[in-house]
Amino acid sequence: MNPLSSVCFVVLGVALWMLRKEDGNQFKYHRLIARCLALAVAIVTFAKVLSLVLSIEFKLDIILFREQLYLKETQSWNGMAPNTAFSLFLLSTTIIFIDKKFKDGKNPFQYLNFIVILIALLSMYGYIYGVRYLYGILSMIPMSFYSALCLYLFSTSVLFLRPYKGQMRKLIGENPIEVVWMRLAALILPLIIGYLKMQGENMDLYDKEFGTAIFTLVTYTISMILLGRKSSIQFKLRSTRKEIEDLRKAENERLNYLFDHSSTAIYIRDIKGRFIFINKRFEEIFGKRKDEIVGKTPEDVWSDGLMHWFKYDEESLNAGIVKENIESITTEIGKFDLDTKKFPIKHLDEEIYAICGMSTDLTALKNSERKIVENNKLIHSIIELIGEMVFVVDKNGNFILYNEKAKRITEQVLFKYEQVYESKFFYPDRKTSFPTGELPGARALRGLATRDRELFVINDAFPEGKIFRAIGEPLLLSEDKLVAIAIYRDITKRRMFQQRMKESESRIKDILSTIGEGIIISDKNGKFLQFNSVAINILGKGPVEIDPSEWPAFYGLYQPDGKTLYSADHLPLQRALRGETVSDEELVIITESKEVKRVLISAKPIRDDDGIVIAGLINFRNITEFRHVEQAMKEVEEKYQELHDFLDKLRD
Fold first, then answer.
1. What stretches of 205-274 adopt beta strand conformation (E)?
2. Which of 48, 283, 615, 632 has the most CB atoms lying inside 10 A of its own CB?
């Protein structure tokens, strides 16, 4: 064997050792080094073959042990044999592409290994049977027996290094290793027996006829033994395969049962697009029975409306990756929202043979999400329309919800509840600072409710300050989810109006107290709204919350005869509350001290902008003295008339 051939075998041996592990990122550098070593051998051997073809001198194979390589008999150098160089080039090429993946699962470079094995076997047969044409090419240096043996072993090692890929997968199939080794023995044993036959003839142990008979008998016996052993193994293999098929069938039935009772729609298609399997949920969603789908492509079953849904199958098959998408489809049953994951199904050698799709029906969930979105929009619209500032904060102080009016507290986008503290809060006296930790939102975060807390707030949005009525409420959404709700209502204008009303009421009271007539105002329910001091002096009593039917007896209201108690329904104030107008009606008031007073009352209704009676007003004045004077004048007039009549009689 040429030294360069030995070096090439050593280098390829190291490369094969580094390629012993196929998976794992930790071996990726080993695989890279192995390819580099094999590439170096391929370059050297290709250069050798090329030099022989072009008749160019190649000195690289005679550098090592140069003196021993010179053959004096032929006056030439014992360089690398051409068939050895060619075989090493093929062998190194197969090592370089040993892990290359092809779409159809085949590895055409394995055929190069079969060529190398054939060349090696022919060379070994040539040496054993003394046929130079089997191991030499013309007058060139022949391949050595040891080179042929190494090539045979190395090529076989490359094939068995990846036994589940390419042609080796078909060669081995489901056969046990023993069958494979018997196939190899069928190639080697005749070679050994032939060698022994020739050695016995050369040593004159027997003649050629006896040697041929022995060779035939031994070869036949070994063939029968191997054939019988293989038949026995194949019978066991068939029995085992049947058991496996039965187990696989039972397992498939169990899987089909589980898949059919799954809420996920499942289907499997082969690489040609035909359906292999679908479950019941798939039937329910797509409105087709299993016998209408299995064995057909989507184009054979559905119209173009559903074809886009299967486009990801081809993408997943071509890329060899998982594809996931969520989309709405409309089938014969209705509209569905499906979360679909599609992934290729592979053999042990990573060859893809089918595509599987698993779809989860999200229709109910999507409908719920749509309702939630609609409700959220409705809630946002409502809180935007209401006049209050609304805050909703989670337990960590993060804002979940707020309306545009709420931003006026800080005049910025709200994220954390602490931003509210940037405003200045005071008690209603507008002087004493209000503690931020006692604000309704802060209390609600601690699980405490706040009712009608009045605050005075100053910030950049309203530097003159605003008066708010605030409430806070903790809300436990779940066992571990607490949110705080705070609502601020701007009551500044109301407080200003109330202040003005008080001032107006005070002025009205001052005016009414200076009027010489009694003024009483009552609402529809008989509650006195105004009762001036003149009225108290005339009636001898102030306002008391009693039923209007008790007014005549309580205040001593009588008809002008001073004996008949006034009817409550006929009182001028009650008539005014019914919408009547009363002018100068006389009645008698008898106080608790038995003082008799005559008053003249006028009454009229008070109406709102819509003309509805909301209150009644009476004004009355004391005419007791006037009636006394009137009675005295009447008496004087009567005396005068009597005197006048008496004088007329005297004249007569």
1. 264-270
2. 48
Q: Taking Cα atoms as reference points, which of 154, 156, 153, 158 lies closest to residue 180?
A: 156
Q: Identify the CA nearest to 538 among candidates 599, 617, 626.
A: 599
- CA angle, 72 then 75 then 80, to 5°: 95
Q: How far apart are the first and last CA of the chain?
A: 197
Q: What is the pLDDT of residues 461-517, one digit of tens each?
A: 778 888 888 898 888 877 778 888 888 888 888 878 777 767 666 665 655 555 668
Burial of 187 (0-12, 13-18, 19+ CB in 10 A): exposed
Contact partners, residue 391, CB within 8 Å, separation at least 6: 399, 401, 402, 406, 414, 417, 420, 441, 484, 485, 486, 487, 488
In order of 58, 168, 264, 270, 589, the CA distances from 164 in angstroms are 40, 6, 34, 21, 124
Does pTM top 0.70 for this prediction? no
With DSSP H G I counted as helix, E B as strand and the rest as coil, what are the percentages for the chain, rounded to 5?
55, 20, 25
Question: How would you class 128 by CB atoms within 10 Å of its CB: exposed for 0-12, middle for 13-18, buried for 19 or more?
Answer: buried
Helix axes 82-96, 110-129, angle to 10 degrees: 150
Cα separation, 546 vs 249, in Å, equals 95
Most confident of the ranges 104-108, 306-310, 507-511? 306-310
Specify whether the CB–CB gap between 44 and 61 falls below 8 A: no
Phi-psi region of 162 (alpha: psi -120 to 50; beta: other; left: phi over 0): beta
- Are the C-beta atoms of residues 597 and 603 closer than 8 Å to each other? no
In this prediction, residue 445 carries a pLDDT of: 85
The count of residues in the chain is: 652
**536 in Cβ contact with 542 (< 8 Å):** yes
Residue that is written with structure tokens 């729609």 in the block: 265
State residue 547 phi and psi, 5-degree precision: -70, 140
Burial-class residue 197 by CB neighbours within 10 Å (0-12, 13-18, 19+). Answer: buried
Could you give the C-alpha distances from 95 to 6, 13, 26, 42, 180, in angstroms and in order?
A: 17, 10, 19, 10, 22
- Give CA separation, 185 vs 174, 182, 257, 513, 610, in Å: 19, 5, 47, 136, 117
What pLDDT is stored for residue 316 in this prediction? 76
Which is nearest to 617 in space by CA: 501, 535, 505, 497?
A: 535
**Calpha distance 234→428 (Å, rounded):** 101
As a whole number of angstroms, the distance between CA 501 and CA 482 comes to: 43
Closest CA to 552 of 537, 542, 561, 564: 564
Closest CA to 85 of 115, 114, 61: 61
CB 520 within 8 A of CB 573: yes
Mean pLDDT on 625-632: 74
Q: Are 266 and 357 in contact (CB under 8 A)?
A: yes
Which residue has tokens 């010489």? 516
- pLDDT for position 372: 76
Q: pLDDT tens digits, residue range 195-241?
A: 777 777 677 776 666 666 666 666 666 666 666 666 666 667 677 77
Neighbours of 368 (CB within 10 A): 11
Higher per-residue confidence, 225 vs 357: 357
Q: Tokens at residue 593, please?
A: 């001290």
| Burial tier of 116 (Cβ tally within 10 Å: 0-12, 13-18, 19+) | buried
- Among 69, 11, 77, 66, which Cα is nearest to 44's? 11
> Rounded to whole angstroms, how far apart are CA atoms 520 and 543?
9
Task: Tell me the CB-side half-sphere exposure of residue 259, using CA atoms within 13 A.
Answer: 20
